[in-house]
Design brief:
Blueprint: H1 2-6, H2 16-29, H3 51-65, H4 80-87, H5 89-100, H6 105-114, H7 116-124, H8 130-135, H9 138-141, H10 147-158, H11 170-178, H12 184-193, H13 198-208, E1 216-218, E2 227-229, H14 231-238, E3 240-242, H15 245-257, E4 265-269, E5 276-281, E6 284-288, H16 291-304, H17 314-323, H18 336-346
Helix pairs in contact: 2-7, 4-5, 5-6, 10-16, 11-13, 12-13
Length: about 350
Amino acid sequence: MIQIVLEDDLKLELNRHDFAYIASVINAVFPSEAKEEYYSPAINGQKASGELYDTFANYRNLLSSTGLINRRSKKSSRDLDSTIVNVCDDNCEAFKFIQEYNEPFDEVLENWKRSFAVRWNILEDNKVETADYLAKFPICILNNSNIFKLFLEDSKMLHPDIALNIDWQICNKVLENGSHLKDPTVKKWITASLNCSEENRKAIGLLVLPYLFPSTKIKARQGKQSFKASKLEIQEKFILYFETLGKADDFERQLLNSNVGLQPRIIFVGELNCLKAYVTLTDKKYAFENPLDAVQQCFYMYQALHIKYPAESTSVWTFIQIYIFNVKTKFDQVSSSIKSIWRSLKK
């Protein structure tokens, strides 16, 4: 990478912002590796370090020793954006393609994969709203289920070991362990699950799962007070359940008319023995015949779009992320209750 950056101008000087930018591009392609491994700036008397910095210094020493550059003459650093565009030319061309076209889908998918580094930089900066990010790409504006194939590819890039074939057998243990719960709604759900298909039984298990977790204290946000989320609130921030589609639509309209930020939502609708499911994102709603598929695709959506889990259901999502999807990140806060619930379900 250093050789490519310097190939047009061997006298080019890189500053700390340049090193940080190149490190972020590398990190976007290899997200499991820390940016600090490639560049750590000088701070508190410690010298700058990292593979990028060391390689640059060694390469310039080599150029100087062979007489190709004069170390005494320094040249101001040029715009690294243009250099990175040249280095990642294929990546940027792919990015341009998905900004202009929504078909044929095979080509969109291929260019989507090739443009991952560029897109992840946009998301990782946390300076763009999800709706604005999606609006950049025609394929995402369409109410088309192909969007989930894109999210899946991004999730695989971020987490190479992510589980793809989920059997959700853990849901049966959830129903078994939840039988001691006193909540009347939970008791009703567990009783109904006895007369359901395997698919709907597991879906009911996911509705019950939040009730195994303790009530969650939500830290105060700007202008608001801290509060303790009830188990119902935890469940509804994980999966909403309505007996009719009309009630679900009314709820969504209220949200769209409010100023509440819209995270991805899972909605189960219908009789418990014949559940349908939807995943909503901004103003789009995607239907799923199998409610378990809706949960799986919503998880990939959270990963691919770099969206935080809802505060109320973070513990539930973290549990699923680690123990169901085999995804661990440096941001995970694994409480003792999460570990305890996993141990009880594995007995």
